[in-house]
Design brief:
about 210 residues, mainly beta, seven-stranded mixed β-sheet, five-stranded antiparallel β-sheet, globular
């Protein structure tokens, strides 16, 4: 089976407005990203609230384990259901963002790392697949970071029935103040870069990387 991938598209659609986001998509996506960010509970657990009756919880099995456990918790009846107790560990739990768009489609992403890591599920967390990112893009970001600064990945978020996420190197984060805006038309199986966006550092720095 061919792994899903990020398609690299060369584009001259560059937003060069000084420190401002100019399109309606970019203005409204701040709140949409924030809705998809999981909350840390402690050093071993993060949770994402889908609605009033469903909270997804991701836990580290133990300090020596290489896996996570994903649970679905219903606070109205105090019911906790284990969905998957063998999810490969891709980073420390406090560097993970867990997000779901419904009871089927969800993502696990590493907020900041030397490489891009994104896992996707379409069966509610019973199975996750790794989304493969194009080597050209990965090499570009790693070169910008000089193999020292990490690559930051926002939580995937939805706008007008499409999914988006943001990618940037830590170097561009503090100097260029820009990120690559990526779009998916197939619920996160494949991604393409649609443009480079300048942003206001103070307004948005907490959202990049979850």
């Amino acid at each position: 089976m061919i792994a899903p991938s990020l398609k690299y598209i060369i584009t001259d659609n560059i937003d060069t407005t000084d420190g401002e986001i100019t399109t309606s998509l970019d203005r409204c996506d701040l709140s949409n990203i924030e809705k998809q960010i999981s909350k840390p509970v402690n050093d071993n657990e993060v949770e994402f609230r889908l609605n009033d009756t469903i909270i997804y919880k991701l836990l580290t099995n133990d300090q020596s384990s290489n896996t996570y456990t994903l649970c679905k918790y219903n606070p109205t009846i105090n019911e906790n259901t284990i969905i998957n107790n063998d999810i490969p560990k891709i980073a420390d739990i406090n560097n993970i963002n867990l997000t779901f768009f419904n009871e089927n489609l969800g993502f696990l992403s590493v907020k900041s790392d030397k490489k891009i890591q994104l896992l996707r599920t379409e069966n509610g967390g019973k199975n996750f697949e790794t989304i493969s990112f194009d080597n050209m893009l990965s090499n570009l970001l790693e070169k910008e970071s000089m193999n020292i600064a990490p690559i930051k990945l926002s939580a995937p978020y939805k706008e007008s029935y499409l999914l988006y996420l943001r990618l940037q190197s830590d170097q561009s984060y503090y100097s260029d103040k820009s990120y690559l805006l990526c779009q998916s038309e197939d619920n996160g199986k494949t991604w393409c870069i649609i443009k480079n966006v300048n942003f206001d550092l103070q307004t948005e720095k907490k959202l990049i990387g979850g």
